[in-house]
Automatic annotation (TrEMBL):
Predominant location: membrane
Signal peptide: 1-20
Span of domain LapB rubredoxin metal binding: 454-478
Bilayer topology annotation: Single-pass membrane protein
Organism, scientific name: Diaphorobacter aerolatus
Its job: Modulates cellular lipopolysaccharide (LPS) levels by regulating LpxC, which is involved in lipid A biosynthesis. May act by modulating the proteolytic activity of FtsH towards LpxC. May also coordinate assembly of proteins involved in LPS synthesis at the plasma membrane.
A GO term from the CC aspect: cytoplasmic side of plasma membrane
Pfam families in UniProt: LapA_dom, TPR_16, TPR_19, Zn_ribbon_LapB
InterPro entries: CellSynth/LPSAsmb/PSIAsmb, LapA_dom, LapB, Rubredoxin_2, TPR-like_helical_dom_sf, TPR_rpt
Record lineage: Bacteria, Pseudomonadati, Pseudomonadota, Betaproteobacteria, Burkholderiales
SUPFAM superfamilies hit by this protein: TPR-like
Protein name (Swiss-Prot/TrEMBL): Lipopolysaccharide assembly protein B
């Protein structure tokens, strides 16, 4: 019977232990004053067993010490030889000590059964918490995958609702917060995106990586919402983080949008020192923008100094040379201005068509028409252009070849079919039926007018004049020095 009880108790214990080992959910043990311990079930079983053994052993120590002391005080009287020869009878105190040891052995054997029973009672008491935790864990992945399915189907409204449900089921999941905030930003609900990311930043248990990520997302929320001052403050806090490079790019966009050229110059210098790219051409544009502002306020010397610095910063940038030549022209230094543009033909010939009108004016002012004519003709043979063609025709007329100047349009049409060149040629041509000439000319001019525009290579925005920075997408040098018809 004794061994049967031992086997029964061991079977109960190991059954509960195997159940705990197979259970993948965490259990919660509640203590006093609202404290609790969340751990795998197997760890709780082992901890309860160890605690029970320790308590049982400590509880037996006083009893064992008491019976040991009583046994030591017990003595066997030796009165006479007859008594000594007779069979010895244990003393009453010794008998009680042996019975106590057997009772202690019995109590110790029941520890294996008592501890699992106590654990079962505690587990049943916390079963409600386990069931609730299990239900929440089932609902959270289901809502998450539902939201992901809506997102892949481009159903953002339903995806947001599903992610909100997932966040409510598992408030500690940071990835769901990031996904929800990004969805809000994409939909234009910047206030809700800001609240989500600010909630993440307010959590004390957030890791450093997630905190930097939330700070960057918050800065993007402010930037998309047009709150440039708050976006700038949020981006500056990303210095020294893995998002530092992205923050600098965003700061540069803010400074360009607000036309804060000195700050833009500073941030590009930092980016260039960090090997984020070559920003010399953009820095030259910043200097040209500052030079234009000084020139508008009458500070010609300051404007010229900035333009000279822009030429040194990016020698192949055409804008600085063209602006400097125009500034020298207004100052009466036509020869220096023409020399600046002649150098442009060698340094950046692709941008020469933009300087043709100014070159024609300067050649007339300096008497260098023949020299400029030869230069434009040489560049035209290498790279035909409508603007170069216009300059050649204008200078050929000035040089006394008005009769044959229009023949340049015919030569152009032989190699480059062009409605713009055809309209230019027809402008001075005498038709057999002269009464129809104005109608034909007006129709051609109307059809050719859109073809003389400039088009941004980045976003496709078309404009009648050339821009160094696209008004649509804010990209620098995205307008080529060619008309739409030539693209």
């Amino acid at each position: 019977m004794k061994y049967f009880l031992w086997l029964l108790k061991a079977a109960i214990f190991f059954t509960l232990f195997a159940f705990a080992l197979n259970n993948q959910q965490d259990a919660i043990v509640h203590f006093f004053f609202g404290t609790q311990w969340r751990a795998p079930l197997v760890l709780i079983v082992l901890a309860a067993f160890a605690l029970g053994v320790i308590v049982g052993v400590l509880g037996m120590v006083p009893r064992w010490w008491k019976h040991r002391s009583a046994a030591q005080r017990a003595t066997v009287p030796e009165t006479n030889a007859a008594t000594a020869a007779s069979p010895q009878v244990p003393a009453p105190s010794t008998t009680r000590y042996c019975r106590s040891l057997r009772s202690m052995e019995f109590d110790l054997s029941w520890i294996l059964l008592g501890l699992p029973v106590a654990f079962v009672l505690g587990w049943l008491a916390s079963r409600f918490d386990l069931r609730q935790l299990r239900d929440e864990n089932r609902r959270a992945p289901k809502a998450y995958f539902k939201g992901l399915n809506f997102l892949l189907n481009e159903q953002q409204d339903q995806a947001i609702d599903a992610f909100i449900e997932a966040v409510q089921n598992d408030p500690d999941t940071t990835e769901l917060h990031f996904a929800l905030g990004n969805l809000f930003r994409r939909r234009g609900e910047y206030n809700r995106a800001v609240r989500v990311h600010e909630h993440l930043l307010s959590r004390g248990d957030l890791s450093r990586v997630d905190r930097d990520r939330a700070q960057h997302a918050l800065a993007l929320d402010f930037l998309k919402a047009g709150l440039l001052d708050r976006a700038e403050d949020a981006l500056r806090r990303l210095e020294g983080t893995p998002f530092e490079a992205q923050a600098r790019v965003a700061l540069l966009a803010i400074y360009e949008r607000s036309r804060d050229w000195p700050q833009a110059m500073t941030i590009t210098q930092k980016m260039q020192e960090a090997h984020q790219g070559d920003f010399s051409a953009r820095q030259a544009h910043f200097l040209c923008e500052q030079a234009q502002a000084k020139s508008a306020h009458g500070d010609t010397e300051g404007a010229e100094a900035l333009l000279q610095q822009a030429v040194r910063t990016a020698p192949q940038t055409a804008r600085a040379r063209i602006e400097l030549a125009r500034l020298k022209q207004r100052a009466g230094q036509s020869r220096e201005a023409l020399a600046m543009l002649m150098d442009l033909a060698e340094v950046a010939p692709v941008w020469l068509p933009l300087a043709v009108p100014l070159m024609v004016e300067l050649s007339l002012a300096t008497g260098e028409g023949a020299r400029v004519f030869d230069l434009l003709r040489q560049r035209y043979e290498v790279m035909p252009s409508l603007d170069l063609l216009e300059g050649i025709v204008a200078l050929d007329k000035v040089l006394g070849n008005a009769e044959t100047a229009r023949e340049w349009y015919v030569r152009h049409l032989e190699h480059e079919p062009s409605l713009v060149a055809a309209a230019k040629w027809l402008h001075d041509e005498k038709l057999e039926h002269e009464q129809f000439h104005p109608l034909v000319q007006r129709s051609l001019d109307q059809a050719a007018k859109p073809l003389t525009r400039y088009r941004c290579a980045a976003c496709g925005f078309e404009a009648r004049q050339h821009f160094w920075q696209c008004p649509g997408c804010q990209t620098w040098d995205s307008y080529p020095a060619r008309r739409v018809e030539e693209l």
